[in-house]
Amino acid sequence: MTEVEIDIEDLVRQGVLTRDEARALEHAQQSETGGAARMEALPETAGLRDGGSDDGEDKDAVKEAAVKHKRHWVRVTRVCNQRCTFCLDSMNQDGSMIDTNSLKAYIALGRRLGRERLILSGGEASVHPDYLELIRYGKEVGYEWIQTVTNGMMFSYKKFARKAAEAGLDEATVSLHGHTAYLQDKLTGTPGAFVTGVKGMKNLQDTGRVVVNVDVVINKQNYKHLPEILEYYYNMGIREFDLLHIIPFGRGFDEHRHSLFFDLNDAVPYFRRAWVWANKPGVYLWTNRLPVQYLEDFEKLIQDPHKLFYEFDGGRHNFEGYLKRGLEPDCWGERCDYCFLDGACRSTMFPYREALIGSRFQHVRLDTRHAFVSPDAERVFRAQRPERVWLEGPDVDAIAGALPQLGHDSAPVAVRLDDGADWSQANWAEDGPLGRVDRVVVRTVEDAAAVLVGKQRLPEHLTVEVRLDKALAAWLLARPSTIKAWQGRLVGCLPNHQFLSESQEHDPPPATLRRLADAGVRLKNVPRCVAGGDVEPHDHELLDANLLDRGGDLDLDRYVHHYIEHEYYAKSLRCYRCALQDNCRGSQVNYLREHGFRMLRPLDQSGQELPDAGSFEDITEVLKEATAKRGRRERDQIIGKHRPDARVRVAIDATRLGKSPGDQPDA
Ligand code: SF4
Ligand code: SF4
After folding, report:
1. For ligand 1, is residue 41 a contact (CB within 6 Å)?
2. Which one of 152, 231, 350, 531 is CB 3.0 to 4.6 Å from 197, fit for a cystine?
């Protein structure tokens, strides 16, 4: 039994939860950061009941609120009345209904975990004999909002749709992958799917109570029709669309790969005509699992990075098996080339584990206030041989006290104290307690003033790293003489944020960064093409002590958080023409979502902007040709899909896991 009194094993036996879902639930109960409770990311439609408002509509804010909304997904059946070619759930379907009492127990558990929105899914949830009772029960135990995901067929019975609304159904997400019977019936493997699905959708709309939206799995059969699909359902009153890119799992990859998977470069003209629907007042588009480079000029449609938690929860046994025991994920191999998770999984998580077990992390970070979770975690952390240590603490005494036990003796130390801490008593002598410190980090105007120009001005051998926000950038720009006095020892670091709203609120825009660089501030974590000159790279490959679990392995949930904030970077497809392509990671995803790929401007060997770098569309034409002539792998190498160092490490990893590097998709 875990904190909430419920027998998770019994829920697994009853078929309510898969093993992975059970593990995710256990994590959710054990930790603030674990499992589905801390990250819920399907569309928030409560505010769209009236079709949205054209006045002052802040779609970013609505979407982010949705991401933070706490949802409780409940699989109601292991059966479906359609046979979609891309079904991700087919391996979980055995034709059975799940026991109503077990479902109620799990629904009630969600409320006890503080979840606000109940989502009934399947298989096909609506075929469960007690479906209406489950909706009523959801209301009874206090869910604010009850949503169902459905193919719509059952709701083609008007009475059923009305009864569902009366029971308390607030929202229905209807899966409609085409705007014609030919497309929908073919993709769902079900004659009549289109007619009944659309009828069900209309019946639900007619209740006047249920918010109805549409989800579309984008695949080879329908991508050319995407603009028409949106138009068709828009004309039927739909204002919210969830567009899911096909992924290499389930039946779609195993049985229908050649008829479902497609080259994204072929789809660009159709996609761009589809994405403009997002600009219509009251229309909400969500993209799912779509490689971010293909959203150039429509960056606000980049999926919220926190949706990664769902993806990792869904394969928890795989990822934890790899992180804790080095076991090859069972999806690993040719699927990786098609996988949206590649960046977070193969290209970063694998190298992270390699670095951990090889004691090769380049950066380590420790907060003096937090004890290691176990002796094993401490041993693994101290075994690293980093190039730099980042040490945080409340005050100088805490840092001075921690340094002698720190280990990593040859690495220089950067120190960050709490905002407003007193630096004046620090003894910076080389043989003193802070002798290893060569850099201090400040985050407020007050602290920057204190260490750069005030009474606590730091000695000359120290570099000051200023974590830039709008106020600090303005403060620095107003003080050219201070910048000059600190030339070579002043670094302006653009911090990363978990959420788009944080980036919007705090980050200086690209033009301000360029002005800072022009004024003499050495920028960090800013692409060189934005800074207009030399930059300091971000501290990639950083082992924060709190990433480690009791066994001294990387904790999956903490890793995903860390990945989003620290390693989720992207570049434009146009970057392939840049002389720095191989050594540049681009920009953190939330800064990109706010400022767009167009801020990135490919450079030549001398660091000058290329006058003929071409447009996004030009590049996709080049990539199409490359794919046609030389294959997908070659194309991926052109755009640097996998970091070169990651490729080498993955090959190493495969050897250790008993595969030959020749088996590697990228080797
Ligand atoms: S990238 Fe990771 S999640 Fe995706 S197929 Fe490969 S091993 Fe599986
Ligand atoms: S690779 Fe892209 S992001 Fe990096 S400097 Fe070149 S254009 Fe800018």
Report:
1. no
2. 152
